[in-house]
Amino acid sequence: MGVSAGNKALRIAITLTLCALCFSASPSFAQTAPATRATPPTARPAAKPSATTAYRAPRTPDGRPNLSGIWQAMNEAEYDIQAHDARPGPLVVMGAWGGLAPSIGVVEGGPLPYRPEALAKKKENEANALALDPEVKCFLPGVPRATYMGFPFQVTQSAKYVAFTYGYDFASRVVNIGLTSKAPVDSWMGWSSGKWEGDTLVVDVTAQVEDTWFDRAGDYHSDELHVVERYTPTSPNSLLYEVTITDPKVYARPWKMSMPLYRRL
Description:
Blueprint: H1 5-25, E1 69-73, H2 116-127, H3 129-132, E2 153-157, E3 161-166, E4 172-177, E5 191-197, E6 200-206, E7 226-235, E8 238-246, E9 255-263
Parallel strand pairs: 4-5
Antiparallel strand pairs: 1-2, 1-9, 2-3, 3-4, 5-6, 6-7, 7-8, 8-9
């Protein structure tokens, strides 16, 4: 007996429905609810070397970790050390050139703790950065800005001295290991004395002139700036760089930034 066109259509519809039910019930084809996306961090969490995979760096003849080499920071801190959104460059005629990529920043624990009057000056600096930023005038960058400007820098190490030679503006400084004397005069790159705490080089930097900034966003300091740097090897080709900033004239409390530094190969 012939099958009518209507019966054929009905059979096809039933077959397609059964196939769809089989596929939807199968674990490999079943649709699952998408995972909830975590809210992006608004501030950088505290960075620390891994406690489970302690790295022992190669040693110098005096038994200290060998930090010698050419290193470079790979981040957006030169433009703004704090968390920030993407934004255009300073001049419309430049188009996308000079535009700022978004970043969670390198400051740990949230916004910088500016005193109210100091925050007003920071905003003024940022609004007039093309005229006021010391980098625009080719001045030396100071510490810690020299570390993360985007230029590589070289570390040369001996038992008594660790020399830093930066790729920007012929900047350099020498860290005197065990130095206890004070600077005879303030300078752009300050007075650096160092010591070893295990595998970490700790550098105390004082006597910097108040004319340097931390970034192009107008974050600044006074003549009471005190910087403590920590350089810790974390792998053959990376260091953890940590900086604690104290400046009671500008900030209500000390604050910290951290970032990895990478060896240039």
